[in-house]
Amino acid sequence: MSYSSVTSICRFASTVMSAVILAGAAYAADPPRRTVDRMYVLECGESKTNDVSNWSPGVNVGVSREFSDNCYLIKHGESLFLWDSGMSDAIAAKPEGVSAGGGILTLWVRKTLASQLQQLSIAPTDITHVALSHFHGDHVGNANLFTAATLYIQEPEYDAAFGPDAAKFNFGPALYEKLRGNPTVKLNGDKDVFGDGSVVILSTPGHTPGHQSLQVRLPKRGVVVLSGDMVHFEDNWINRRVPARNFNKEQSVASMERIATLLTAEHAELWINHDKAQSARVPKAPDYVE
Ligand SMILES: [Zn+2]
């Protein structure tokens, strides 16, 4: 029997089953789908460029722009899931900021990630799950702290970050080399982390070879998608602009279209990590979002 005829029979059988079950208890046929308990948004650095057209080719040439940079800590029962680790806490020792990206950016860390976790009475080794949207320095800056967590990473990102040519992808292995020893789940696509639809890693390549975004189902707010660097700010999202330094332009556009479709289907919000105005509207730790 062909695969398609098996699936169509299964579909027919499950439609009948659903109809029978719906007649009894509503939605009993759906998979168990719960939400996370809460999500903390941590301030993990800020940056400024004097020419934002590096992120929007040909548009706003010579115009300066400030970027936010967040980390997100998700509580799911006894588990603590960290999404992104921000800029290195070491930058906090330089209040004048440090230059990055070949001089196109200045970075500051006003509050360390370690101190924000401490305020929540959480030790870095309490983090049970860690995923980075991608391996650029403003997302893996404190990755070496989280050695006890299971790491979720797309295989193309793993190969680029831990392979011999990391520098070609603008990755700095010193920031994350301790993750080599973590329990690691290599992905080639999406991953429902807890098997209940509450936290789903979404494959969104383009900015880097194995870039990923995160879908989080919150008990009151509903579904939020954390962008990573799938897009950097709202104007680029509306106009589907791709930064000149992205790894692959076609993949970048396809990833944006994919997320746009998902946002509609899930009635979800897109939280754009580096959009400072948007980030300012989100409560920060020790406050949290439910
Ligand atoms: Zn970034």
Features:
alpha/beta, eight-stranded mixed β-sheet, globular, five-stranded mixed β-sheet, 290 residues, disordered N terminus, binds zinc ion, 7 helices, single chain
**Shape summary:** globular
Number of helices: 7
**Using only CA atoms, what is the Rg?**
20 Å
| Cofactors, ions, other ligands | zinc ion
Structural features, described:
- By secondary structure, this protein is of the alpha/beta class.
- 24% of the residues lie in helices and 24% in strands.
- It is built from 7 helices and 13 strands.
- The chain has helices spanning 3-24, 113-119, 137-140, 155-162, 234-239, 249-266, 276-280; strands at residues 38-49, 65-76, 79-83, 98-100, 105-108, 129-131, 150-154, 184-187, 191-192, 199-203, 212-218, 222-226, 269-271.
- The longest helix has 22 residues, at 3-24.
- The protein is globular, with a radius of gyration of 20 Å.
- The structure holds zinc ion.
- The site of zinc ion (ZN) has 5 residues, from helix 3.
Helix-strand layout with pairing:
Elements: H1 3-24, E1 38-49, E2 65-76, E3 79-83, E4 98-100, E5 105-108, H2 113-119, E6 129-131, H3 137-140, E7 150-154, H4 155-162, E8 184-187, E9 191-192, E10 199-203, E11 212-218, E12 222-226, H5 234-239, H6 249-266, E13 269-271, H7 276-280
Parallel strand pairs: 3-6, 6-7, 7-8, 12-13
Antiparallel strand pairs: 1-2, 1-5, 2-3, 4-5, 9-10, 10-11, 11-12
Short recap of the structure:
With 290 residues, the protein is α/β, with parallel strands linked by helices.
